[in-house]
Amino acid sequence: MKNLRNPWAWVPTLYFAEGIPYVAVMTISLIMYKRLGMSNTDITLYTSWLYLPWVIKPFWSPFIDLVKTKRWWITAMQMLVGAALGGVAFTIPGEWWLQGTLFFFWLMAFASATHDIAADGFYMLGLDQHSQALFVGIRSTFYRIATIVGQGFLVMLAGNLEVLTRNVRYSWSLMFYFMAGMFIALWLYHSWVLPRPDEDSDRAGMTRSRLIDELKYTFITFFHKPQVWAGISFMLFYRMPEGLLSKVSALFLIDPGHSGGLGLSPAEYGFVQGTVGVVGLTVGGILGGIAAGSHGLKYWLWPMVCAITLPDAVYVYMSYAMPSDLMIINICVFVEQFGYGFGFSAYMLYLIYYSRGEHKTSHYALCTALMALSMMIPGFFAGALQEAVGYKTFFIIVMLTCSLTFVVSYFLKIDPEFGKKTNDK
């Protein structure tokens, strides 16, 4: 391997860089557009389209191997993300702020999805098997840190700037300029520190026609798996309540009281959702993995189904009780996010279970595309539905859609041994 580097020098920062643009596109954009006065209908509709690059990722990810190296793709996409962040910052104060910011968020989304493909592939090329196993927890930890920085620190930064400057547009523009500078620094750092694995330049035998043939065969074999329709239904509808809730819950927390929301400031929202919520999500996910490892996915499926759905009731409570105590709001968000983290473990494990066998990597990529689609579709109409019925009724509707999660889970047939920890060495 050329230019051998200590993995600690690049693995943490690489996955921090993977998390920041995703959070910017999926979460920070929601808060920004709400602060700029957009309606919930428009916010959820426009931002849901930003899931599209992750939905279609399996269709074009094989072609990355045909052009340049994964290292080149990583650094190029980081530079593009930095430019897109600067573009968002530049267009916010302008007359065409909506069209301009949406264009650059789209550019950022495609660059981020491409970066995900290249980074995950490079991780396997740049480390031996022992180091891959050793750093798998490190990469996920720094991705979570990126989430906390994005949803927490950066949103709080924008909120504090609003107080100092008394200008919402200028404040969010400054925050995105800060993000652009941070990402350009990451690009410069990774251009120097990333190793140059010999395998990364070896694309012998890779032709466009061969990749197209393999892609066709991947789709054919994917749809010939046992329980294909039960599996696809599970992938699309298991997260239906969360798909409706995820975008509107953020808007509910910051909407003023006369609009039915809790009226949190950006700084308060950054702490509640970006810190307390992310901690709850992380703890729930860790415990979900431990639980599944002890008795298997089949044993824990129904507790996880309950965990991902029933805590959504805290938003029904908050929409009626309208708590002003930040501690109560923090507890409610923590409970919902903890339940989501615990219940989401079942979803991710099932994707692995369904992808087993030949072409498991390609099949898993298709599963993740369906996962992105499951969040994209509900988001299209979530805001319009909320504005039509109000927050109280909307959250009750979310609870009613939990029945879909139970129905699609009922039809699954899972090997009782899958997920259990074995004593094999």
What does this entry look like structurally?
The mean pLDDT is 88. It is globular and about 55 Å long. Helix 12 (266-295) packs antiparallel against helix 13. The protein is 77% helix and 0% strand. The protein has 16 helices and no strands. It has 425 residues and is mostly helical.
Task: Give a brief outline of the structure.
The chain is an all-alpha fold and 425 residues long. It is built from 16 helices and no strands.
Specify the overall morphology: globular
Helices and strands, in order, run as HHHHHHHHHHHHHHHH
Largest sheet: none
CA-based gyration radius: 22 Å
User: Number of DSSP strands?
Assistant: 0
Pick out the low-confidence regions. Answer: none
Strand content: under 5%
**Helix-and-strand structural type:** mainly alpha
The number of distinct helices, counting runs of at least 4 residues, comes to: 16
What is the rounded distance between the termini? 28 Å
What's the arrangement of secondary structure elements?
Blueprint: H1 11-35, H2 40-48, H3 52-55, H4 57-60, H5 70-91, H6 97-126, H7 129-165, H8 168-193, H9 208-222, H10 228-237, H11 240-254, H12 266-295, H13 297-309, H14 313-321, H15 326-354, H16 360-410
Helix pairs in contact: 1-2, 1-6, 1-7, 1-8, 1-11, 2-16, 5-6, 5-8, 7-8, 7-12, 10-16, 11-16, 12-13, 12-15, 13-15, 13-16, 14-15, 14-16
Give structural attributes.
0% strand; mainly alpha; 425 residues; 16 helices
